[in-house]
C-alpha cells in the first residue's frame, strides 16, 4: 500500500500526460496482459503462502484464501461490468483478480475461508465503484493520471483488506502465527480494538508516505525538472533518449500520427467500408 500512495502522490505532483494522450489510449497487448496476470496470481499465492516461512497449516490456509478471494472478486467485478456496461471485459476481470489478491493479503493466514469469500465480494465491488463511478465524480481523483488504476486495485483494495482483517481475524489462527497474544477480530469478541489498530496503521502509512515522498520530490526538483517541457512530451521517448520504445515502422522512420495513427486517412477509409477489416496495411 505504501508504494501506491507514493506513486499516486508523485503523479499528482508531476502532473498528467498531455490531454491528447489521455483521450484515447488502448491496451498494448491484452494477451500478454493475461499471461502476466496468470504469473501474478501464481506468484501471489507464493508470497502469501510463504509468509509463515514454513509449509504448515497457516500457509495452506493462506494459499486457499488467496485463491478464493481472487476468484470471487474476479466474478463480482465481471458481473458488475455486465450489469453496468452490458458486456464483460477481460481487462475488468484482471482488475477484479488483482483487487481480490490485494484485499486478502493482510488477513490471508488469519481468517476462515468463508471470510475470504466476503473479502472477494467486497474487493470486487467497492474498488469497482471507486474506479468506475466515484472517479468520474471526483475532481481530485481526475487530477491524478493513474493509467493502470493502481490506486483503486491496490490502495483501495489493500486498505479494505486491512480493515476487514480487524473484523474477521480468527483467534486460533492468530495464535498460530502472530507474536501478539489475544489477537482477535471484532466478530470474534475482540471489540473494536483490532479494527482501530488496523485503521491507525493505515493512516500512519498514508501520512508517512506523503511526507517522505514530498521531501524526495523537493530534493529531485533541485537537481532536475520533475516534468518534461510540453514540446518534449509531444515527441515522447525519442526526445529524451533518442530511441523509440517500439520499432513498428520503417527503418529509421519516425512516428507520424497522420500516417501511422489510428485516425489516419487510410484507416478511416477502411473502417467506412461495409465489412471492412479492423486493421489496415500501410505502404511505408
Automatic annotation (TrEMBL):
Q: Identify the main location.
A: membrane
Q: Which residues form the Ammonium transporter AmtB-like domain?
A: 14-246
Q: Where in the cell is it found?
A: Membrane
Q: List GO terms (cellular component aspect).
A: plasma membrane
The UniProt keywords, alphabetically, are:
Membrane, Transmembrane, Transmembrane helix
What sections of the protein cross the membrane? 26-47, 53-77, 89-108, 114-135, 147-169, 199-224
Q: Which GO terms describe its molecular function?
A: ammonium channel activity
| InterPro entries registered for this protein in UniProt | Ammonium/urea_transptr (IPR029020), Ammonium_transpt (IPR001905), NH4_transpt_AmtB-like_dom (IPR024041)
The highest taxon in the source lineage is Eukaryota
Its placement in the membrane is given as:
Multi-pass membrane protein
Q: What protein family does this chain belong to?
A: Belongs to the ammonia transporter channel (TC 1.A.11.2) family.
What is this protein's record name? Ammonium transporter 2
| Organism encoding this protein | Olea europaea subsp. europaea
